[in-house]
Amino acid sequence: MQLIHSTHGHHQAARDLPCRCWSPAVVWGQPGTSRGEVDQSCGPPTVAGVGVGEERVVNTVVWVVVIVVVIAAVVVVRQRRSARTGQVADARAEARRWTERLGAQVYAIDAADNAAARQALADAAERFTAAGSQVDQATSVTQFHLATQTAYEGLYYVRAARTALGLDPGPELPSLPGQQQAGQVAQARQVDVGGHDYQASPQPGAQTPHYYPGGYVAGRPVPGGWYSQPWWKPALVAGAWGVGTYLVASALFSGMDGMGGDYSYDNAGGYDNGGGDYDTGGGGGDYDTGGGFDSGGGYDGGGGGGLF
Prior knowledge:
This protein is of the alpha+beta class. Helices cover 45% and strands 7% of the residues. It has helices spanning 2-5, 10-16, 24-27, 52-106, 115-137, 141-164, 179-182, 233-238, 243-253, and strands spanning 189-193, 196-201, 210-212, 215-217, 220-222, 225-227.
């Protein structure tokens, strides 16, 4: 110890001595140090008041907590992803089931020379094609639900065709959006709008071969029933009601029983004039009541069919 405290060889001898920084006599007993302070002579530095072993334990605990949190987060994400995947798979299966059911019915009924049944089957075939395309392109639950709704609508047209043929329409179907609110045509009515004849009826007939299952078209209710013309199609395509469409709806349904809710087709009910897309005989609209809608061509019915 004299070498350590000597004036001339103090520093050299201190460097030559074995490192004893872990000895209590060196760390806590040397002059100028006290218990709990850090000895900077050698070895790894430690936090004041915490031994090296305690510091390592704290670090280990921190890392364990971090790892546990990360693992828990991964598990939660995977569970949510798995649940979402399962929901999409279920929605896809449901949409395919209803679409296949529609296709089987469309091509199993022979409309023969019945104009109303032929038109209803043509409309059902259009929905079958649309539903199949939607199923193929869908990637989410919402998109598959839309495909299912399209298949529902097609099956309503199949029921209409069976009704027109005098067959059992089959089991009830899930309601379409807005169908209950729109109601059903409760009585036959014939009106003249701009020199053109329009008819609505609760039953199919030679003068009313166009069926609509009921629901909302461009935000407005159209009752389910049979019509002489598909006057709602311009609004369906354009997404808005024009003057002519308003006039036809108002004339056909003002005061008619059987309409669901408080949906009136007169001026008080909100069917005010909008943009024109209907030609009543010589105007500038784009709806021609004399033609433009195929009332049944292009559909080749198959053999007789059973129920759904």
